[in-house]
Design a protein that fits this description.
This protein is an alpha/beta fold. The chain has one domain: Purple Acid Phosphatase, chain A, domain 2. The protein starts with a strand and ends with a helix.
Amino acid sequence: MKILLVADEESPYLWDYYQPGRLEGIDLILSCGDLKQEYLEFLVTMTNRPLYYVCGNHDKGYENFPPEGCVCLDDQLISFKGLRILGLGGCMRYNPGPYQYTEKEMAGRIRRMRGKLKRMGVDIVIAHAPPKGYGDAPDNAHKGFESFVGLMDEFHPRYLIHGHVHQSYGHGHPRTYQCGETTVMNAVGWHILELDVPQPPEAKGIRRILEKLKKQN
């Protein structure tokens, strides 16, 4: 599966100077927040593929004018063609603005999802903020969440993808970190993620039956 990851900075390459075919082969778009509604709508239109997003701390406009044709994944766990995706937008609280949470509040959001996480499991977490100690920054606005580390320790997603901490801030962070079995990835700007999606057992069983019938005929 080929996934377009976007966050925080609208890319002229994908918008102002877009050329037809540039996003050919994309199966899914995941947005980690702080992007203009028009940008997300443009990407959906050009690819004709689903776009799931979480909100960033600068996405107040989404409250009255959410991006059309896109689906908010905040506090949702969904399955897309066998890929299990959890959304946890927002950043550490640093002022009275929207989409900001204390550590306790974020832990509560995760706790309310635990039952579904235990039943379904999770492959990808999309967030706006990073986990604590994995690509975050020391200032109050860009500190990571400790509860994200606990989430990775307990449920072992393949990826936790975030935005919020721009490479241009000069922190010298790499794009990816490894936390146990989870790859933590900063999606600021845009990035292409390609990964294999295992087929569920029932799908494999149906395929074997069809192959057997085909041989018999």
